[in-house]
C-alpha cells in the first residue's frame, strides 16, 4: 500500500462520520522506484489531505516535507521529487490502519489493506 | 460454463486456481483489455494529457488496471477476492489495491476520484450469498458511496453481464435513485455472445460540471433549447392526472391496481389473455364462475 492509497482511504464502519485520517501502524515497509510524472503529482496534490499525508510520511521516515500545504512558489523540482518518493515509492507491506473514531483495526497484509467489514459493522 | 455468479460467492469462486487461470488465459486478457479501452472511451476524459486518478471496482488481478496504466492514468482498485489481489501484487501492477466488498460501499474519502470504471463485476451485487445479503440494499449502498467518492461532474462506466432484464432494471434504477444521471450503452446489441452492457453514469448535474467534454455540452444545449421552445411542454405525471375526467380520477385514486390487472377489462379480456398464454405453452388457472370477479372488500 502506497501513501497515495492511504490518503484516499476512509473507514466505513457503522457510526463513523468521516472515518479519516486512518492512523498508520507500520511493521514492514519496502521501497521501489517508479516513473516520475510531474503532471500527475500537480494534479493529485490538491486532492490530498496534507496534514494526514505529512504525518504518514513522517512515520515512514520522510521528514523533508513542508509542514503546511505547499504554496505555488514552493512547488520546486526538489519538492516534487521528495513528494513523489513519499507518495508513490514507499510501500507499506505489513501493518495496520486504525479508524480514528471507532478504533477498528484494518490489517495490511502483503501490501494489501483489508478494509472488509463484518455484516454487523455496515450501516 | 454456467454463470460463475451461480456457483459460489466471489471471494470463494475466485480462489487461487481461478485467479491464476484468469491471468494466464490470453483470451481473458484480451477481452478485459478491450472492455477497459471501451470503458475509458465512454468516460470521455478530456484529451489534455493530464493523468487522472481512477477507481477500478472489481479490479481482480489488475488486468484492467494495467491497461489504465498504459493509457496514462493512475488507478486504485478494490476487489473482494484476496487471491486475485495477491496475483495483482505479484505482477507488480502500478495501481493500489484494496480488499473490500463493493456491496458495503467504497472505503474512500468524498470527491477524490476523477472517474470510475468497473469491468464485469457489478452483476455480483444481484446475488444474495448469505441470509444477510439484500441485493437491492447492497446496490443502493454501492451506488451511494460511489457517488460520494467521485468528483462532481465526473463519470463512472460500469460494464456488467446481466442475467436477465430484471437485473438490468434493478441495477439501473438503483443508480439513478441515488442521484446519478445517465443510462445504458449496449455494444453489439444484435449478437448474443458479443453483446456488452455499459452503464454510463455522471455524478452531479451536467451544467455544474466544468470539465465536461464538448460532446456532452452539445447534448446539454440541445436539451435546454427544447425546453425553451414554445409548443413543447414537458408533461410530468401529476399534470397528466389533472386532465383525466372526474370519474376516472376517482376510480384511479380509490383503488389503484397494477398495470397487469387493470380493473375495467372484464371477464372477456381475462379469457383472451389466458388463451394467449396457453398458446405460448404457459400454465393458466382454469376458468370458473369466480373468474374475473371482484374480491370481497376486507377490513
UniProtKB/TrEMBL annotation, chain A:
Keywords: Methyltransferase, Transferase
Family indicated by similarity: Belongs to the TRM112 family.
Protein name listed in UniProt: Methyltransferase-associated protein
Protein's gene: TRM112
GO MF annotation terms: methyltransferase activity; protein heterodimerization activity
Membrane-spanning intervals of the chain: none
Signal peptide: none
UniProt cross-references to Pfam families, sorted A to Z: Trm112p
Keyword Methyltransferase: yes
A biological process from GO: rRNA (guanine-N7)-methylation
Organism expressing this protein natively: Micromonas pusilla (strain CCMP1545)
KW Transferase (keyword) present: yes
SUPFAM superfamilies: Trm112p-like
Automatic annotation (TrEMBL), chain B:
GO cellular component, one term: cytoplasm
Main subcellular localisation: cytoplasm
GO biological process terms on file: rRNA (guanine-N7)-methylation
Protein localization: Cytoplasm; Nucleus
Entry's family note: Belongs to the class I-like SAM-binding methyltransferase superfamily. BUD23/WBSCR22 family.
Residue ranges with Low complexity bias: 245-255
Keywords tagged on the record: Cytoplasm, Methyltransferase, Nucleus, S-adenosyl-L-methionine, Transferase
Protein name in the entry: Predicted protein
Compositional bias per record (Basic and acidic residues), positions renumbered to this chain: 261-286
Domain Methyltransferase type: residue ranges: 55-157
Disordered: annotated span: 238-299
Superkingdom as given in the UniProt entry: Eukaryota
Source species of the chain: Micromonas pusilla (strain CCMP1545)
Segments forming domain 18S rRNA (guanine(1575)-N(7))-methyltransferase Bud23 C-terminal: 253-296
Segments traversing the membrane: none
GO molecular function, one term: rRNA (guanine) methyltransferase activity
Coiled coil regions, renumbered to chain: none
